[in-house]
Amino acid sequence: MKAMVLTGHGGLDKYEWHQDWPVPQPGPMEVLIKVGACGLNNTDVNTRSGWYSKSVNQATTGGAFDEAGAEDPTWGGRPLTFPRIQGADAVGAVVAAGEGADPALIGKRVMAGGWVRDWDDPENKDKAGYFGSECDGGFAEYTKADVRGVAVVDSSFSDAELATFSCSYVTAEGMLSRANAGAGDTVLIPGASGGVGGALVQLAKRRGARVIAMASEAKHAEVAALGPDLILPRAPENLRAALGEEKVTVVADVVGGAQWPKLIEVLERGGRYTCSGAIAGPVVELDLRTFYLRDLTFTGSTVTPHHIFTDVVSYIENGEIRPSLAAAYPLSDLKEAQAAFIAKKHTGKIVVIP
Q1: CA distance 164 to 323
Q2: Residue 153 and residue 317 in contact, taking contact as beta carbons nearer than 8 Å
Q3: Where are the transmembrane segments (predicted)?
Q4: What is the pTM of this model?
Q5: Cβ–Cβ contacts within 10 Å for residue 66, how many?
Q6: 156 shares a domain with 10
């Protein structure tokens, strides 16, 4: 089969294009999926570059990090096994079923859930891995997955459109769930033009919250289509003044960086900050007096309960959320697609088509 194979941590040159890579064989409780499309995500970039290493304190650049540690270069803080096929957001048709997997799934269109679980202890975060990281993912013509971690999707959306959902929307819904965001809240979302940011806008609105999006002004028109109540520039010089009379009760952040202290300063007393990324820089400055004197709550969000994935699938099928597909590239052009992703050339999600 055709596959884009990651050979090690580093720059885009660490990807190798193969046209004769072995087709995976489904084991017990696994299905083989002919991939129709697979989305790109920050985790693909960060894992490839080694950005997750605690030795790295820079913003995500997409380039190699010479200082990346050998022992903690992945989201879970463990070394990665190479060669590896990345790609968490695989969508396609089941073409074979292993022992114990229902053969009636053959021919069904499915979406792969990002989290690879120990199904004897599925909510144990310490036993979780990620599709395309701890096992091979969807940057290939075929991939395999545990049948308990995929979902049949009944939708008129194309494979490319469906491939924009899993990672971004599960991440966003997990963040909002941990922050207990809902009606009566005003949610501030930095980086609203990105995949997770755009998902946060839609999902926070679905929960009945008032939504304030932050994005570069060149992308305001695209962000407006997602339905926020207010759009601000990406980094206002005076964020409090830009907000006017708005009272922010939740900040849902995947950006971090130099702007971070301003986000915390505008939270109302008793407000909640939830985070699942730091693309503008992972090391930030916090005045602990702001944290405790204002009774703030901070939550990190990475490994989500399995029901978050199935909830997102139901939102798709019920027409409650819609895709934000920016561009589709051939899988053989993954390097170009990832370069465009890193440069934020597009608003919304980029997918690759095998």
Answers
A1: 6
A2: yes
A3: none
A4: 0.96
A5: 9
A6: yes
